ABC transporter ATP-binding protein (Raoultibacter massiliensis), 285 residues
Amino acid sequence: MTPMLTRLLSMDRVYLSFKEKRVLDNLTFEVRRGETFGFLGPSGAGKTTTIKLLTRQLVKDSGTVELFSRPIENAHDADYERIGILSDTSSLYERMSIEDNLRFYAKIRGVSDAGIGELLERVGLANDRKTLIKKCSKGMRQRATLLAALIHNPELLFLDEPTSGLDPATRLEVHRMLKDMHDRGTTIFLTTHDMTEAEELCDRVGILDNGSLVACDEPGALKLRFAENKVRIVMNDNVALETTKDAAGAVIIAQALESGGVVSIHSEEPSLNDVFLRLTGKEFE
Ligand SMILES: Nc1ncnc2c1ncn2[C@@H]1O[C@H](COP(=O)(O)OP(=O)(O)OP(=O)(O)O)[C@@H](O)[C@H]1O
């Protein structure tokens, strides 16, 4: 795993309202260099708003936002060349082919277009490179949009629901690509409504509810925090016993094993979805 020591971006006690509606409410968190950070939350929690603040499409009411160790108000133009963004407002030219769109984005970003063939290969679009965007499926568009976001090999990639609406095979291709970028040291800030995706891709996740962070940790650590102190022993006469994960439980487990009739012993771990439900009171949609 990539060493994750330095902070690449942070928010400290950030507030933002649209008219009377408070959307970000004392939001504090940081993203470290090289990590894939999952930003999770129910619909309307403020995830896209946070990305817009971090990419200067919106301005906070108060608090501190830092990007590349500088207050965002003092960001340099060059900082934006270090960033890639995929959001629902990312767009490709409908009447141009996938490949020509990528050439165009390479030109805007001031990078060579020599690597486009390899990028297309990586997401399974090489054979479709001449297809016009208007003739692409949703999955093809999404993969092409992702390539446009990372054509300049950014240090930091903001991905707002990168796999929403994709079929399972395309989703897997996108996951492979994001893991590959993570292995190359890219920092990824990702929002998703898919807990399996969050568990699979993210080093840490922050759970946002009503504009504040209610938890922030590694997925495994969060699950452990909410794990119940319960062990279930299933015996071969179909009787199930429940005990605790402590010395008293150990005695009961030892007795059950001694009896010779144990079929299985489970420690019931909550899923990330259970953790989300406990923290926000809402199902992950
Ligand atoms: N420009 C705007 N003007 C007024 N209200 C807005 C504006 N943009 C967002 N909001 C409101 O701010 C809240 C947070 O929106 P945001 O898009 O950040 O949520 P989200 O967590 O990304 O949701 P989703 O998961 O559904 O995309 C919502 O209640 C939304 O209606």
Observations:
- Residues 168-183 form the longest helix (16 residues).
